Amino acid sequence: MEISAQLHVLQVGSGRPGVRSTVTLVIDGEQRIVIDPGMAPSQTAISDPLLALGVGPAEVTDVIISHHHPDHTINVGMFPNARVQDHWATYQFDIWDSRPAEGFLVSPAVQLWETPGHTPQDITTLVRTDGGLVACTHLWFYQSGPPEDPYATDSEALHAGRKRVLAVADLIVPGHGPAFAPDSSTPP
Fold it and tell me: In 72-185, where do the E strands start and end?
């Protein structure tokens, strides 16, 4: 039997003028994982949908940040008991446990991939669900891309990461927009 998790988008991200990250909750067994708790109109924009799913902020076991820009990290502190996962370590309270992100299993159905490009430290979170493999990533801002990330530190690496994700993902949750099923119009 294949292990799968539940995935819920708590906040759909947006661009300017109101910059918001897309914030996602993954429930995998006993683990409650929040991805990219960044900028929001208020903390209740994240906590209210979380509570509606029966999860309190103190029950979140892990927070994953795709990269260290404030629009994806500013609300990490909402989750006082969570381990924080990033590109090179797991942090909890005063413990810093260094490890590479590539292939790291946050839970049985949640794995990290190193996908630099937007920043040198970007990671993608892959989530196995009953509906297929979901990639939570900042390789795309929105479904339309943009085709070229204007803030990319390494455009070649970004496009390589996109191709890698497109080869496996059934659904993509981008950094600042609604989830989408990739197709031939998805910028590689």
Answer: 83-85, 89-92, 95-98, 105-107, 110-114, 123-129, 132-136, 171-173
